[in-house]
Amino acid sequence: MSASAPTVKKALRDSGSKSVKFEEATMSSSVVCDKGHGRGLCRDAAIQISKKGKLGRCPQPGCGAQLRYLVKQQYPNVEEEYEYELVKVVRLKSDDQAEDDGFDPMLFKLVRRKSGESWLWPFYWGLNKNEKWHVGQFPPILRHTEFRKMIDEMEQP
Question: Which end of the chain has less Cβ packing within 10 Å, N or C?
Answer without folding.
Answer: C
